[in-house]
């Protein structure tokens, strides 16, 4: 939980630095708000029992409630962030980081702006967050709905097969082209010629040079939306260069993403295990062999979602956003720390007595420390055992102890003791059991804890 | 939301200082866990629809899930805190701060300790939090379930009427004794002699001297539980004096609290409008006339709750806790701040262009600032209007602007401008539009923002 607080603190700190405003939406929405927004995954929505009111469901993500909120409050532009839990009626699989209840951490930019500027900023936020969290090498895979749809149109995929072919293509990060082609042709009945033609496009990835080469393909650019998408990607890379994010971005024509509401650029950040940062990724066998740990953040542009909840046509608000999968990030960071080295609490000083109990004196000393913003604890017993007090310090890795004795108290002194070797080092002292005047105690402890 | 973050930060900071560990429990529990814990209010529990799994409900408070968590994980002692939302299927009344979904902020001490020590510490946490939040004068009303039950027994209240008489007594803070007596005698059929006898006790409040005087009443002390309760209160006041909380505590024999699970000390913090701190409250007409804004925190000891969820008898874990009603605290603090003075975001610098657009240059400058941990924004347009940029700064009370012009950029300089009189004062400058080298920009802005 402490690690969780630290991670969330890092992320929201960056959100604020980019002008983000926190907005909180309720954990449940009217059922109809959520219906028809999540494609196949709609079956995972948690419904509330109708107890004589409206039909409600638990939020499935933070994006749809945000769009509903913008429409309901007539907000035309905002940069918002939201850290909260979402709910999916799934079979939990802890090992895969799949749970029924988990945190999402979202940043979104809503408003009518010039093309690709907010999109490039969101990707800058994405890069800065993952860099700050220090979770290892990562790659931001990026595609554009207009480009993907355009390619399907140019290749001749029938309208009614676009969704299913799209989801087959999305598996190219885990499966070979042969398997994906088989799924399209055998399972989904796509013409083999069309499948092969799709294959010449969707297996490509790269940087701005790939955009340029696709823009030279007159068959592609004859499709208006596809050309628009490519020009937007070109713009994106122009801004990305200034934002300093270009080294992390891989334009990947196989990225599809399942959600219904995306209309423009889409992206997904994946970790790359033990691999160098691919500055100019190529469609090589080597790269495909890179171990993919999985997606830690994803998002895209959704220009139509707010309009769905608005009463008039002027209620349309274009949006672009990113959602961090906090549970996965925790899992990765947890494995980097030695579990035992994580301190369970923040307590800096344990106030203990040698033998006589001295409860009131222990309360007084703890009080004195707390009043000076030093976190302190003591055992809630009138006569605690010495060993129990020591064990508590060890278990909680508490760095310092103040030890009270009847004789010392009468002389107005207490003892300070470093409770472990690490603590002694951290507290910049090797001394044990130094006597110190009660009147100097706060100053002495502050010095030892480097406060 | 920013105020909310600050308030929660203050509270959790204090929780940590007392050794608190954050624990998170799920937003839904099995329905049976919540059943029979909340008395009459059980009808406000939100049930989830049975979609082919267990029967679940949304948590009603953070206490019952905490107790369930302790039992499930076999935890025998812990100091935990938890800030999260709870759910009540009530008719929302915003003016009364009553909502269906709201935050609670809980601190609990679980474990087998010596009598009244953790209880006194919880009250110290309560006093420190309310003092730190600076929400005005407050009083901690306190009673003990054993004392209240004992008084009912001594006065001869029939067993089956105890609950309903208890809830009538609880209204003594809002109603006159005559009205409460009428409710007991006329509406609830209590013998008038019994009612009058109850009245001689429950209208009393005070400090340790009240405990002492009750201990001298042999009719009361003949009841074993009552005597036990009084001795515990005596102990409490002894510790309370050392903790420095005694000035805030009023032993109030009318405090009852509705929840089923309390077994010992119970308390409620109330704000007192424009009244001096009652150091030794007396049962005077004057005091009854004090305006009561309402309860901002409440809690008590619940020694049996964990045991209800444990499989064996050794699963019994005594607990005592406090829950802060954050929404009410927000409402009070919001009314203290001028709404307009609250900054909607944290942005410190707005990067704007004079006329030529200069988008890439604006991105570069914003990037430079952000890399140095200065929060910065700019307009997402290739050629934004000057007035629109100024309006954004005004609306968001952004203190500083960096203004970029084509001519200046070619000379390697930008202008810094304080955006308002307040900002100019805050940024310790009266100068407007000073030219500064781009290479000195971060240092100069840090100086002006006192970073």
From TrEMBL, chains A, B:
Ribonucleoprotein is among the record's keywords:
no
Similarity remark: Belongs to the class-II aminoacyl-tRNA synthetase family.
In terms of InterPro entries, this protein maps to: aa-tRNA-synth_II, aa-tRNA-synth_II/BPL/LPL, Anticodon-bd, Anticodon-bd_dom_sf, His-tRNA-ligase, HisRS-like_core, HisRS/HisZ
What organism, scientifically named, is this protein from?
A: Zancudomyces culisetae
Aminoacyl-transfer RNA synthetases class-II family profile domain location: 1-344
Q: Which GO terms describe its biological process?
A: histidyl-tRNA aminoacylation; mitochondrial translation
Q: Could you identify this protein by its name?
A: histidine--tRNA ligase
State its Enzyme Commission number(s).
6.1.1.21
Which residues are listed for L-histidine binding in this entry? 61-63, 88, 104, 108, 257, 261-262
Q: Which GO terms describe its molecular function?
A: ATP binding; histidine-tRNA ligase activity; RNA binding
In which domain of life is the source organism classified? Answer: Eukaryota
Q: What Pfam families has UniProt attached to this entry?
A: HGTP_anticodon, tRNA-synt_His
* Swiss-Prot/TrEMBL keywords: Aminoacyl-tRNA synthetase, ATP-binding, Ligase, Nucleotide-binding, Protein biosynthesis
Reactions catalysed, as given in the entry: tRNA(His) + L-histidine + ATP = L-histidyl-tRNA(His) + AMP + diphosphate + H(+)
GO CC, any one term: cytosol
């Amino acid at each position: 939980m402490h690690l969780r607080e630290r991670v969330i603190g890092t992320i929201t700190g960056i959100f604020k630095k980019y002008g983000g405003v926190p907005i909180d939406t309720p954990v449940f929405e009217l059922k109809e708000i959520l219906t028809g927004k999540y494609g196949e995954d709609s079956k995972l929505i948690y419904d509330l029992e109708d107890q004589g009111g409206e039909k409600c469901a638990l939020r499935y993500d933070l994006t749809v409630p945000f769009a509903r909120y913008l429409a309901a409050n007539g907000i035309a532009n905002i940069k918002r962030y939201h850290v909260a839990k979402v709910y999916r009626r799934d079979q939990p699989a802890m090992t895969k980081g799949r749970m029924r209840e988990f945190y999402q951490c979202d940043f979104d930019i809503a408003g009518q702006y010039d093309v690709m500027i907010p999109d490039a900023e969101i990707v800058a936020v994405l890069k800065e967050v993952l860099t700050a969290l220090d979770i290892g090498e990562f790659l931001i895979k990026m595609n554009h709905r207009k480009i993907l749809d355009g390619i399907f149109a140019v290749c001749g995929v029938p309208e009614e097969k676009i969704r299913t072919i799209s989801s087959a293509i999305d598996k190219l990060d885990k499966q070979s082209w042969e398997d994906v082609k088989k799924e399209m042709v055998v399972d989904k009945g796509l013409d083999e010629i069309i499948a092969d033609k799709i294959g010449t496009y969707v297996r490509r990835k790269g940087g701005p040079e790939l955009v340029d080469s696709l823009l030279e393909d007159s068959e592609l650019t004859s499709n208006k939306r596809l050309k628009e998408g490519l020009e937007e990607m070109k713009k994106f890379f122009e801004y990305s260069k200034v934002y300093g994010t270009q080294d992390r971005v891989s334009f990947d024509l196989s990225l599809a993403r399942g959600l219904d509401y995306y209309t423009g650029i889409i992206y997904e950040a994946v970790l790359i295990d033990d691999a160098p940062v691919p500055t100019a990724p190529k469609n090589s066998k080597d790269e495909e062999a890179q171990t993919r740990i999985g997606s830690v953040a994803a998002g895209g542009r959704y220009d139509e979602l707010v309009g769905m909840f608005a009463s008039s046509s002027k209620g349309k608000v274009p949006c672009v956003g990113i959602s961090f999968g906090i549970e996965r990030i925790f899992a990765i960071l947890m494995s980097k720390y030695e579990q035992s080295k994580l301190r369970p609490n923040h307590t800096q000083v344990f106030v203990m007595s040698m033998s006589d109990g001295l409860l009131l004196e222990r309360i007084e000393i703890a009080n004195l420390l707390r009043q000076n913003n030093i976190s302190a604890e003591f055992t809630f017993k009138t006569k605690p055992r010495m060993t129990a007090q020591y064990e508590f310090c060890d278990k909680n890795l508490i760095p310092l102890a103040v030890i009270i004795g009847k004789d010392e108290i009468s002389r107005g002194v207490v003892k300070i003791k470093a409770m472990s070797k690490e603590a002694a080092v951290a507290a910049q002292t090797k001394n044990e059991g130094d006597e110190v005047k009660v009147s100097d105690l706060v100053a002495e402890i502050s010095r030892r804890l480097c406060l």
